[in-house]
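Hi everyone,

Forwarding the result from last night's run.
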Amino acid sequence: MNTRKKRAQRLWAAAMIALCTFGAVSCQAEEPDYTVGICQFAGHASLDSATQGFQDALTEKLGDRVSFTVKNAQGDFSACTIAINTLVSENVDLILANSTTALQTAVTATDTIPILGTSVTEYGAALQIEEFDGLPGTNVSGTSDLAPLDGLADVVKELFPDAARVGLLYCSAEPNSQYQIHVMQENLEVLGYECGVYSFSDSNELSPVTLIAASECDVLYVPTDNAVASNTELISNICDPERVPVITGDESTCLRCGVATLSIDYYDLGYTTGNMAARILADGEDISGMPIEFASEYTKKYNKERCDSLGIEVPDDYLPLQ
């Protein structure tokens, strides 16, 4: 009897060990294989869409094998630094830096964790790489939201052929904006326009600078610029009463203060970046060999309500913003 009882106890103990082992393995299998940190510099539609596209693509590829730690700096440089440093200290497997400022902060914080940028206009300017050939060759790659600047200059020419002076309004604290303004000025001057460059260092300077630009110019151009995107109501409140139209570098800014733009889909841009992340995490692709990727399509779009208000005739190949 004692022998049978001992045998039963041994069998029970073995079963419990097997069950616990299976449970431990099951719990471990449910844990994500990869933790991805996301730092979005500011909250506006374009960046929000890029973040969503990135998460959707990576989740589609990896399912519950990936988890996200999402931080939004709400346009605050100090908060952006804290967010990036937190992600680095947590030793995440990859960082998505959504915007130029987030990218530059991440590059300063780590040279080992893979960093993918998105909503970054010009990586050569952002990373201070002279004669940039499209391949950073470090722990950095990503996607660019740069629309063809010669195409944007053509938009100015198509809509405002009789304008004399175009004002270029941008934040001097953003290297990508400086790059866009430099190239845009060259393109516009080739088309015969006189250009005035109006820079501001922060949002406190934006109002007086915009007032001067609107009083001196027939048309304004604003690039893809986080400071501009965060202050579109201010620009609209100055330019609309003065009946000065604004050409913008991106769609969300055009919706709020512009008349026309060349549009890319920021969700698709983020989705492309998510596919790049999957190749790094799941396929083991070396980020140092991954060139910067761009949007594949651009669409001429216009703000119908504002164009109607200003009496702007828009060619048939422009689509209305939704």
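The CA atoms of residues 137 and 289 lie 6 Å apart.

Cheers,
N.
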